[in-house]
């Protein structure tokens, strides 16, 4: 069984049909929740907790329900209170209540005039009750080289999805698309008794934020999105947008290595070494022994997809380990990559993890689309070409796509504020905010993700000003690395 810690980590790795009209009856979630003092270590003294019930399937509002936990920190200047800010957690599967506990000390400025509200989304309910059949990877994900291999992958994944759906004790398997999550968010709004909410959405929570903007534009006072993918653009286009950024970060790594004698590749042509390694592994996979998975084979696609970490880590520890792994692999020893690469390749073939995103249209339509994507990726980035692993994982999804990528009507939406790292997710966030007139995205000039949750003072300052006063910073605003 997965531990909660592993579930959270796996969920962090993790970036339709016309809606059935809902009945006019007011669901139970509209009732005011009962707030009580929260329990637990490291809990702010004034943090309050509650819970609401929402339908498992919003098309059947009087059917089975699930319970969503809520938390709030009341405004510290109640006489000047503006309203509530709802945090929309990422993952998917992260718990917003835990996010609020961790981030409370960094959000004191925002809290002066707002109740800060958090909730644990339906995806976290799913992870807490995940049955063993949903935890077992259907395969170790690899890149199909032919239509036959693509069909075999689809069949394998379909069997894994079906086994997970049959074992599902919650009914949530096919009801975790971001439109369903957005309806839960509006249930929270109604329970709070607010006409409009302000939002802070991070990472995959931005997909739910877009779904909310699609369904309830009139209920948004302000929307801050932090390191979020642009679901409107579609998963494949988003991946293609990130390839030049990944190349630029790899160039930083190579320059760092050239200036750092402790780097195992110091004094060598880092890019040429990487390309020789990955192209050779595509022809003849590197055999390695993993402490967790036994004898494994690593292809160039595995290394390009899962081997490189853009964030160098404390004192460059991740980049030091990456350089050492390349050096060993170039000499035929793939042990430096084996555990992390194969472990991640298995996570992205785990039905219970994938079920939280496949309903948002995260799949190739067929082998022809995969081939076209590979052609574009090769042209943009020879060093990181190949099939998009997150999209491959949803191959074989057995249900209709509930929330496909499509244009977003912007009439009635306020300008959004975005923030993202120029080393990674800024390009995603700017892609999204650029669709909404008057919006701005702040660039954080360093590695990072979910900047306000990471305590980055400059992005938090801009978010606080925007959410409080509805004032946006000038276009092109840059925050230095902290």
Automatic annotation (TrEMBL):
Domain AB hydrolase-1, chain residue ranges per copy: 174-274
Keyword Hydrolase: yes
Transmembrane segments: none
Signal peptide from the UniProt entry: 1-30
Claim: Nucleus is one of the keywords in the record: no
Domain Peptidase S33 tripeptidyl aminopeptidase-like C-terminal: 391-479
Annotated keywords: Hydrolase, Signal
Listed InterPro entries: AB_hydrolase_1, AB_hydrolase_fold, Pept_S33_TAP-like_C
Lineage top rank: taxon: Bacteria
A Gene Ontology molecular function term of the record: hydrolase activity
Name of the protein described by the UniProt record: Alpha/beta fold hydrolase
Organism of provenance: Herbidospora solisilvae
